[in-house]
């Protein structure tokens, strides 16, 4: 999951929370993951020289608000692509309970922005600098509006200052937020369980599939 299979990141993270006290339902879920891996053992990350986006860094971010029924914390996921395949991804439960899906997405955006800045610096160091803002695709228009417009004071005054890192990077034009419909949000596969068709579609979007 860490090196070559972002398509199982959500499942591994969800199961890992119960590693100390597993139950029968967790074993059943684990068996499903093993069956999936067995059926897709010849899948891998595929990078393409002629991919439509070329060597331009692209990214997706998604959050499943309050999806943990035990503590009502949200799960965030992000994915960065280069040459048609994922180069960095994360599926992680947020550390605190938030009051809305907008806040959850905004907080996830701040963490993703840190990874984005690091990747841009890395690409610059190896001779692939990009003077244009990197597009960060989100499916929450309210979170995008808050990041672009600091006038939403009543809706953001309870959010910790550190999460406004996202707004600062938008202002500095290092990243550009772009809305993407939920049905086209590749990072969905990193935040929630999906049906087979959607999961496989998003896995391929991440560059995980059977090479020709």
Report on the structure:
With 212 residues, the protein is α/β, with parallel strands linked by helices. The chain has one domain: Nucleotidyltransferase, domain 5 (2-Layer Sandwich), CATH 3.30.420. The chain has 7 helices and 7 strands. It has a 5-stranded mixed beta sheet. Helix 3 crosses helix 4 and helix 3 (101-125) crosses helix 6 (165-171). It is globular, with a radius of gyration of 18 Å. The model has no long low-confidence stretch (mean pLDDT 91).
Quote the average pLDDT.
Answer: 91
Major β-sheet strand ordering: 4-3-2-5-6
How many DSSP-defined strands?
7
What is the level-2 CATH architecture name?
2-Layer Sandwich
Would you tell me the structural class of the helices and strands?
alpha/beta
CATH C-level class is Alpha Beta
The shape, in one word, is globular
Number of helices: 7
Number of domains: 1
Distance between the termini: 22 Å
Strand-and-helix sequence, N→C?
HHEEEEHEHHHEHE
Could you name the CATH homologous superfamily? Ribonuclease H-like superfamily/Ribonuclease H
Helical residue percent band: 25-40%
Low-confidence stretches: none
Estimate the strand proportion. Answer: 15-25%
- Biggest sheet descriptor: 5 strands, mixed
